[in-house]
Design brief:
The chain has 171 residues and is mainly alpha-helical. The chain has 4 helices and 2 strands. Helix 3 crosses helix 4.
């Protein structure tokens, strides 16, 4: 092969391998960062234990989500649209909600989520939809702020995965 052809082949080879070299460089850099972080964790076992606990909690949440039953096909499924609506109901006195919770051995949150499940069931039934065996999954906001910090501004919350069995009818 003449010299010019060899040089051209080498340049082409370098152009072809350049993306692979870039990827290899990125992997090596990421590996070096991981090794450095690992050394730092070895030097601070308390931080390592806290990180492991967070990882375990995250894994448990993902496992819980994976085990949840699929949503039933309802009018609530589909692509999000622009049209929105809202409805208001008469407020429930908190004392009544607390009394009901105490009588049933449930929290205020449990009572209110049961009201939501019942309202969803009633709505679907009123529209003529099947309600027996319908299951809806939802993300429900959960307040994480301790009572002694209740007056502070800003959100301190998380999300809980919940299942609404709308087939349950309160008698």
């Amino acid at each position: 092969m003449p010299f010019a052809a060899q040089a051209s082949a080498r340049r082409e080879s370098h152009r072809t391998l350049a993306p692979s070299q870039d990827a290899l460089d990125a992997v090596l850099k990421a590996g070096a960062v991981l090794v450095a972080k690992g050394r730092a964790l070895l030097a601070d076992p308390v931080k390592a234990a806290a990180l492991a606990a967070r990882g375990s909690a995250f894994t448990a949440e993902i496992a819980k989500l994976a085990r949840m039953p699929k949503d039933s096909p309802t009018r609530f499924k589909g692509a999000p649209g622009k049209e929105k609506s809202v409805a208001w109901a008469q407020p429930l006195p908190l004392s009544d909600v607390k009394a009901l919770g105490r009588a049933l051995g449930a929290s205020v949150n449990d009572v209110l989520l049961s009201c939501v499940a019942g309202a969803i069931r009633s709505y679907l039934a009123a529209k003529g939809d099947v309600v027996a065996g319908v299951i809806l999954r939802a993300l429900v906001p959960v307040n994480l702020r301790p009572m002694e910090e209740a007056s502070r501004l800003g959100n301190k919350s998380d999300w809980s995965f919940s299942i609404f069995p709308s087939a349950s009818k309160i008698r």
